[in-house]
Amino acid sequence: MPDTYRKPTLDKDLDKIAVMEEATGLLNRSFVTPGLALVFIFLCAVISAVFVTGHPGAVVIVAAATIGAYMALNIGANDVANNVGPAVGSQAMTLGVALAIAAVFESAGALIAGGDVVSTISKGIIDPVAVSDPNVFIALMMAALVSAAMWIHLATWLGAPVSTTHSIVGGVMGAGIAAAGVDAVNWPTMGSIAASWVISPFLGGIIAAAFLAFIKTAIIYQDDKIAAARRWVPVLIAIMTGTFATYLALKGFKAIIKVPLGTALLIGFGVAILSWIVARPVIARQSRGLENRNQSLRKLFGLPLIFSAALLSFAHGANDVANAVGPLAAIVHTAEVGEVASKVVIPLWVMAVGAAGISLGLLLFGPKLIRMVGNQITKLNPMRAYCVALSAAITVILASWLGLPVSSTHIAVGAVFGVGFFREWYTENSTRRAEYVARHSINKADDETTASNTGRPDEQRRRKLVRRSHFLSIIAAWVVTVPAAAVLSGVLFVILRFALV
Fold first, then answer.
1. CB 458 within 8 A of CB 145
2. CA torsion sign, 284 to 288 to 291 to 295?
3. Which of 73, 249, 309, 466 could form a disulfide with 259 if both were Cys (CB 3.0 to 4.6 A apart)?
């Protein structure tokens, strides 16, 4: 009899040991990522010291490089999620594949098309005359970098995707006010930036909802879904490739060659026609033997989503690396030359710090925000994720045409919200959907919205609606970004000003 009791007791003890080992592993893992981030920041400081040893202001440059590396890590942790989140949330690619694609294309965009000249005063926010003293300018830029990085770090920890551009804008504004007073700020420029808080997410949401409405009408709620997909999916792929070609011509390669909007549109139109010709036989071949159900349609949108994630990451690396290395390059130039310039050349080692930091930040800390954007705001499938990706590119093109300063973060997240809120409205109000449901017996796995209607009212509501808690927290983070970064930057400027005297 005693033997019959020893085995369960031993099993329980072993289970406790296994649980303790698992907990220890998780605890150790939680220290690994910050440790790797600190190692990267230290290496950036060492590399900068190697390049600037013997130069005037070497100590300031090394300190700035350390801060720039920290900023780049935070950009990768927060901002890149918008490019790959929808594709991951729709299960078009795994998280690991998304991280690899984003890291490679972010780095490529930064190094190939990131530009070698940037404006030292971000977006003309501060009058250059007001900060013409080199020491004042260096303190201003360092305060802006630190405040923006700290704010993005906090937002990432809270799970809120925020605009890195707006964070830098707020940092420059706050330090500028502390340095030269309120009159030094270009308030019309700040007004246009504030207007973009509303315009860019709203526009992104409207465009994404419009494309989703078309897909539902032309493909999903047709009696023969596969035949409709053969006709319209090549057109949708052509629209996406043409749009991205225009987007890359305007934004992705702007540092290499300046392309007028009309020329970029012609390039996009040519690419769209070519991709339509190529996509027709490919989609026809992929659709052979597919069942007449929504699950089959998802397979046709998987590859376009992978390409869109890669292209968005490339364009983001080309554009947003300046948020990390622009102020750093300005500090390096000012410390070495001893004067403030309106535009400066970015040294290769500075660009490498930005590119490597963004990619490493994505790999170490990006999954949290990727999951937030991909599946915690609203449920995405490949069709909805396609609408989000296409909306992001189209909105940037429209904003460039209108001359509006917009945030890619606000656009992408606004598109996710637009898709979610449109689904709510469409489910309750669409007569086409109601007629289709009445004509067909829909399998639970084929139409998730209809399946949810058969459940309890509270369960139906939870599945259908956008998560309001995430909606409110993200909107609040957007509104607070500029003033929070400005206040923190102003305080830091005062401290740094005295330290650099």
1. no
2. negative
3. 249
Extract the tokens encoding 476. Answer: 């609040």
pTM of the predicted protein model: 0.81
Residue 167 domain boundaries:
38-500
Give the CA angle between residues 260, 261, 264 to the nearest 5°. 90
Contact assessment for residue 364 and residue 282, using Cβ atoms and an 8 Å cutoff: no
- If residue 181 lies in a helix (H) or strand (E), which one and from where to where? none
In angstroms, the CA 420 to CA 407 distance is 20
Check if the beta carbon of residue 109 is closer than 8 Å to that of residue 318: yes
DSSP secondary structure letters along 429-455: H-HHHHHHHHHS---TTT-HHHHHHTS
Counting the structural domains of the chain, the total is: 1
Residue 195 domain flag: yes
Each of the 501 residues of the chain gets a pLDDT tens digit; together they read: 455 545 555 555 555 555 555 555 544 456 678 888 999 999 999 988 888 777 777 888 899 899 999 998 998 888 877 788 888 888 888 888 888 888 888 888 777 766 655 565 655 788 777 788 888 888 898 999 999 999 999 999 888 888 888 888 899 899 999 988 888 888 887 887 777 777 888 989 999 999 999 999 999 888 889 999 999 999 999 998 998 888 778 766 666 677 888 888 899 999 999 999 999 999 999 888 888 888 888 888 888 888 888 888 887 777 677 766 778 888 888 888 878 776 777 788 888 888 888 888 888 888 888 888 888 888 888 899 889 988 888 887 777 676 666 777 888 889 999 999 998 888 888 777 777 777 765 444 444 444 444 444 444 444 555 788 888 888 888 889 989 999 999 999 998 887 765
The answer to whether position 330 is within a domain reads yes
User: What Cα–Cα distance (Å) separates residue 84 from each residue in 20, 139, 372?
Assistant: 35, 35, 11
Is position 30 within any domain?
no
